[in-house]
Structures are given as C-alpha cells and as structure tokens.
Q: What sequence folds into this?
C-alpha cells in the first residue's frame, strides 16, 4: 500500500507517535537513557549534515527523524509518567479532600462519582479519582468532601468502565463520617476563562434541549452536546454491546456531519472557498464550546482543521499525512493523550477508511441513476454494501486496540451500523434544525416530532442489537493473543510495502476470522468446565463456567464491593451470564444486579419463593431491574432442581432460624458427581446432602446457633472449611484452604 512513500511528514509523525507509545510503557530510567541516546544521535546527524555534502538530504531526513523521537521521549518523560507515578504513592488509607466532577451511580444504598482529589494526607494531589460511597450521598458537581478513604491504584485493563485519566479508586465507609462543604451549585470544576464559559454555554444549551425535546432529550444531548448525564447506564451499556458506543461521543462522525452540512449550506449560498473554510473553523470552535471541550470532539476538530488548512495551502490534500500530523500535534500539546483509548480508536478507524477502503470501494460496480425499480434497488444494495464495508474496515483496524484495552469486540456492530449510521446522518442535522425552529408552531413542532421518532427508533435498534445472543465475542481466549499479534504484524507490513494487487490487504482479516473460528470450536470442545468458589469474609459466590458461558450463584449481601469481586472473578473470556441465582435477597441486590447486567448480559435470573414481607420488597426491586434490562425472571422453591450451564444442576436451600438469621446450603451436581456447600449456621439438611457428596465446604456466611451440636459428616475425598468455621469443626479430614478469615478462591471440576 506504500503508506509512507513520498510522505516524509507522515513518516516523522509516525515515528513521534510510535516512540510516545513505547515510552509510555517504559520505566523512567530507560526513558532517560533513550533521551541521552537520541541526543547523541542528533549531534552525530548534525555533524554528518555539515561535513558530508554529498548525502545531505539523507542526513537531514535522519536528523528530523531523530528529533521527532527525541521530542516524543522528552514529552513522555516529563509529562506522561508523572501522573501515574504520583498516583501510586497515595495508595492506602488517607484523610482526603475531594471535589466532585460528575455523578455516575446513585441508589438508596450507595453512590459513585468521578472526583478530583485535591489533598491527601496533607499533600496537594489534584488527581482524578473514582469515588465509591457505601451509603447514599446526594453530592453535586462542584461540592467538596473531607473523608477518610481507602485508596487503591487502578489497572485500566481490569476496570475498563473507568476513564483513562482516572488513576485511583477511593472507597468511603459510612461509619467513618463525611463532612460536606457546599460550593456554588452552578460552578463546575474547570479552568477559569474560556473553559468556564464553555461549561455555562453547554449547560444553557442542555436546558434548551430539555425544553424542546422533553423526555426525548437525553439522546439529543448525548450526540449533540456530549452530555450523557440523562442517559441511563443501562442505555450506555447497550450502545457499547451493540458496537455503537462511538455514537455517544462527539467525534469524527458527528463533526463531519454537522460541519459538512454547514459547508454544503455555504456552498449553495455561493460563498467563496476560503471564506467557507474560515466560517467552518469558527463553527468548529463553537461546537467544541458546546461539548465543553470533550477530548473526542477536540481531536476530531483538530483533524478536520488539519485537512481544511491543507486545502487552504494547496488544491490537493493528502489524507494520511493530515491524519498522522493532527494526532501527533494533539499528543505533543497534551502528552497524556497517548493514554487516551478513544484517540487511538478514532485514529485507527480513520486510517483504515482513508488508506484501505478506497481500493475496496473501487471494485464495487457503479450503477447509474435510473427511474427503473430494478436499478434503484441495485443502487440501494450497493450503498448498503458500502456502509457494511466501512464498518468492517473500521472494526478490523481497531481490533488490536479492542483486544489490548477491552478484551472483547462486538460482532453485531456491522449489522447495527447498517441501520444506525444512516439514521445518525439524518438525526444530527435534524437536531440542529429542531433547535432552530422548535419554538415555531406547526413547522417547528413537526420537525421536533420527526426527530424524536428517529431518536426512539435508534434506541430500539440499539436495544435489539445489544440483546442478540453472543453479539459480543471475547478476545481474551488463550489463543486470541497470538492471532491478534500475527494479524497486526501482517496488516502493518502490507500497509507499508508495495502491493501489486491492493486487495491482498484483505487477506489478514479473512485469515484471522477463519483461524479464530477454528480455534474457538476446538477450545469449546476441549473445555470441561469448572465450578469456582470465591469467598471474601462473609460474602461468597459460586461460578459455573464452560467456554466463556457462566452461571452465578450469589451468597452475598449485594454490597458495592461484591460487584468488583464478581467482575474480577469471572473468567476473562466470559461473554455473558446465562443464569444468575440469588440464594437469599438483600436490600442492595437490585443495585448489584443492575451494575452486573450493564457489564455483561444476564439471560435468566432465579429468585427464591419466600414469605417474609421485607424480603419480598427486595425481590420486587430485583424484578423491576430485571424487567428494565430485558432479563428473564424465574422463581424457584427451596430445594428445587435448577439446570445451570453445561449440564450442571443445583439445589439451593434457604431457611430462617429462630433467631431471625438466614441460613443457606446448596449442592451442585454433574454426571453423578456432586459438591455441597453449607454456611456457618450448619443445618442438618446440609449435612445430609454432604454425606452423599464428593466435596463439602463449610463457608463463612451466617453464624451457628449457640449450642448446636449437629454431627459433622465425612465425605469420600476432601472436606473444605474456612478458617472462620474450622475451629468449630472437630476431626476435619483433607485440607484447609484459608488465610485469616477468608478462604479466597479455588476451582473444582465435576463429572
């Protein structure tokens, strides 16, 4: 494809970006060594340039290349590594002062926010953090908090829901006490001057959108103003699973549609070319202000400005050079952008569309306009194929990033974008027209009504696509890494070398799909499945899994930390939760299930049939969450046989003792093999099950009644016990798997 042939500026930008990425992953000492090495090479290149007149051009190109790499190393050393290094020193327990940036999740049991940690342990920090309050707290943007917090460092790969520049996660326990210092409710955390003005402009525009569109305003604000506060977390999750998350971030698609429509209008009004470009640049700046200078909007407008400035300086413009230069400029101005996943997703997708897609499009037949129905249908078919090819090319070019950063990819993205891309092209300009004419009777109301209908159609399409079974495929299978790496290397090589047949560039994607499908089939056939126990203090979870499909049995109180516990315990390649069994309901279970379903689809939820009025209230909350999320609801009686994933069965028992405390015990069966669990209340029924089980576990949940002398059963092979329950058990055979009060994790294979 000869990407860099004759494109010297493009190649220099590529070197700058490559070294920026490499240096971001290196230790400070290695970065310093690279800076010294590049400096010495610069000196050598200057000497060669002065002394060797014959090869001055080669020496000059080499000098520019070394300078580009030196700038990247300096930028990374002084700006990128500092926030990460500073964040790690604040892990632990601190008294911290924080300023709320935005609210993410609020319920009657817990609240979560993005915040700026202004001070920790008496030191100024000003780091962006994710704040979890294990109690309800009505904080607003701009409020300040002084609280005792438990601070942990983030691993973005483990917690992909968090912002890329969020470096710490903080937990505030309700017993520690929190004091509030109310700031001006209208004030936002931003820099003075232009950013503060942009924030007020965005708020005013959002209020006007609410006034015009009413209940249909959230999607308009999300796609036009980058204000996603009105969209539920479930809706945002559905966009992600449908492969349409890019529609909720004001990015290249939105900028090109809005500013492209403006350019078309100016062209129809016969405005000169250079004046059109000036007006479009002003329009782009206004769009940035309306989106509160969101990073995705800034980089998209920067890329567009680079293209337009190229047109101003020359009648022809080289798209790859403009793309590489604009991204290099963004990274140079804001070095921490090298850690912005959205930037690299936009860059990769755009690279595929400007370099590869034109050659594929040329192979499609050109159908002339005609009044014949057959010709019209043929033109429609070719146009639909073009949209599908655009989505396919963009998805394959972003595949390495999706694998590295998220570990999954939406395979329904091509289908969903066939519908959503044309609707978006109509929706965004109509939003602007609706806001301009919304106050007018009849005409304005009609445009608003049509726009609202399109909004509802888009949300319905996203919901349907998100609920398609196995619509999201994992890239965390053991065989995925080598396949993605080989695919990436092959694509990179074909992009830079000369190809006699340009369509050879299609060979790596086709080979990757075939190899992945074959490996997945072999893996699913060979995987025997396992039952995994996860215990933390008195909270316990069982996960039955085979080839990425899971069933979960929840023996927890539904607290916020159980969400992270389950997230980190599910297999990396789990694509969905087939069954979610609630052993006994707690007041926080509805919020827990809501959050889990936003991360991974839940197909069925099993709830126990109980008579306690308080617990019935908890179950009704869970049912409401399940209905909103499209989860199938099943009720079971105590001891009823439930079929889980891969031929595994479960009997779950829930009883309430005379002291009011609940007890849980259960048995898992597969191919004549069984495993029994009982909590610390130690019911006789559990022991009867354990007598016939191969394995038995005495868990940490619940407490044993005083004076309970129920005999301990013996099992054919191993008796597990937590340290919490072990002192009460005499004659324990087998092994004790425990540390402090926690058993941790273990897995067994049944059958």
A:
């Amino acid at each position: 494809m000869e990407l860099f042939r004759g494109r010297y500026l493009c190649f220099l930008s590529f070197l700058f970006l490559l070294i920026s990425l490499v240096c971001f992953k290196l230790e400070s000492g290695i970065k310093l060594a690279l800076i010294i090495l590049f400096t010495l090479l610069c000196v050598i290149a200057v000497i060669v340039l002065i002394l060797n007149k014959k090869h001055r051009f080669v020496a000059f190109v080499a000098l520019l290349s070394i300078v580009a790499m030196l700038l990247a190393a300096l930028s990374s050393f002084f700006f990128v590594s500092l926030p990460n290094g500073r964040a790690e020193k604040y892990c632990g327990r601190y008294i911290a002062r924080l300023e709320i940036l935005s609210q993410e999740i609020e319920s009657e049991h817990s609240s979560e926010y993005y915040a700026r940690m202004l001070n920790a342990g008496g030191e100024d920090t000003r780091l962006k953090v994710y704040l979890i309050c294990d109690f309800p707290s009505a904080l607003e943007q701009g409020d300040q908090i002084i609280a005792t917090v438990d601070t942990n460092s983030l691993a973005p790969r483990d917690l992909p829901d968090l912002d890329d520049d969020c470096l710490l996660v903080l937990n505030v326990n309700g017993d520690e006490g929190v004091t509030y210092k109310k700031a001006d409710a209208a004030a936002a955390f931003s820099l003075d001057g232009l950013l503060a003005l942009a924030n007020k402009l965005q708020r005013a525009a959002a209020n006007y959108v609410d006034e015009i569109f009413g209940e249909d305003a959230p999607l308009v604000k999300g796609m036009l103003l980058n204000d996603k506060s009105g969209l539920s977390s479930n809706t945002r999750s559905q966009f992600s699973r449908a492969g349409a998350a890019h529609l909720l971030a004001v990015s290249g698609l939105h900028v090109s549609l809005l500013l492209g429509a403006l350019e078309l209008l100016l062209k129809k009004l016969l405005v000169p070319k250079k004046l059109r470009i000036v007006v479009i640049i002003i329009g782009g700046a206004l769009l940035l202000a309306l989106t509160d200078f969101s990073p995705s909007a800034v980089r998209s407008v920067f890329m567009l400005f680079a293209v337009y400035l190229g047109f101003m300086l020359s009648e022809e413009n080289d798209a790859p050079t403009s793309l590489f230069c604009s991204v290099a400029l963004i990274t140079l101005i804001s070095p921490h952008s090298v850690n912005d996943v959205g930037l690299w997703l936009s860059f990769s997708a755009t690279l595929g569309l400007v370099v590869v897609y034109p050659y594929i499009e040329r192979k499609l037949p050109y159908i002339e306009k005609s009044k014949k129905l057959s010709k019209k249908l043929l033109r429609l078919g070719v146009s639909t194929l073009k949209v599908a090819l655009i989505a396919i090319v963009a998805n394959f070019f972003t595949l390495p990033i999706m694998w590295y950063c998220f570990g999954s990819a939406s395979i329904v993205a091509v289908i969903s974008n066939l519908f959503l891309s044309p609707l978006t092209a109509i929706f965004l300009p109509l939003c602007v027209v609706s806001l301009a004419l919304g106050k007018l009777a009849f005409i304005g109301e009609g445009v608003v009504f049509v726009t609202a209908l399109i909004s509802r159609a888009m949300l319905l399409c996203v919901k349907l696509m998100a609920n398609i079974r196995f619509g999201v495929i994992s890239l965390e299978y053991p065989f995925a890494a080598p396949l993605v790496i080989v695919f990436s290397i092959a694509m990179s090589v074909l992009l830079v070398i000369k190809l006699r047949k340009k369509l050879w560039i299609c060979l790596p994607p086709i080979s990757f799909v075939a190899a992945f499908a074959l490996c997945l089939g072999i893996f699913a056939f060979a995987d025997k499945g396992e039952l995994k126990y996860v215990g933390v203090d008195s909270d316990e979870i069982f996960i039955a899994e085979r080839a990425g499909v899971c069933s979960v049995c929840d023996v927890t109180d539904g607290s916020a930390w159980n969400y992270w516990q389950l997230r980190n315990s599910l297999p990396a390649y789990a694509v969905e939760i087939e069954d979610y069994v609630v052993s006994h309901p707690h007041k926080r279970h509805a919020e827990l299930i809501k959050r889990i379903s936003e991360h991974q689809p839940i197909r069925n939820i099993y709830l126990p049939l109980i008579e306690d009025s308080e617990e019935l209230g908890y179950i009704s909350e869970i049912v409401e969450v399940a209905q909103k999320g499209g989860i199938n609801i099943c009720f079971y009686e105590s001891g009823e046989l439930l079929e889980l994933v891969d031929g595994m069965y479960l009997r779950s028992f829930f009883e309430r003792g005379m002291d009011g405390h609940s007890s849980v015990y259960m048995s898992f069966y597969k191919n004549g093999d069984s495993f029994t669990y009982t909590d610390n209340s130690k019911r006789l029924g559990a022991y009867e099950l354990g007598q016939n089980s191969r394995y038995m576990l005495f868990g940490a949940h619940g407490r044993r009644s005083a004076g309970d002398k129920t005999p301990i059963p013996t099992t054919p092979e191993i008796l597990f016990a937590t340290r919490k329950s072990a002192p009460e058990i005499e004659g324990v055979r087998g092994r004790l798997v425990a540390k402090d009060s926690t058993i941790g994790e273990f897995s067994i294979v049944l059958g």
Notes: Residues 155-160, 181-193, 731-742 have pLDDT under 50 and may be disordered. The radius of gyration is 29 Å. The chain has 21 helices and 21 strands. Residues 247 and 253 are 8 Å apart (CA to CA).
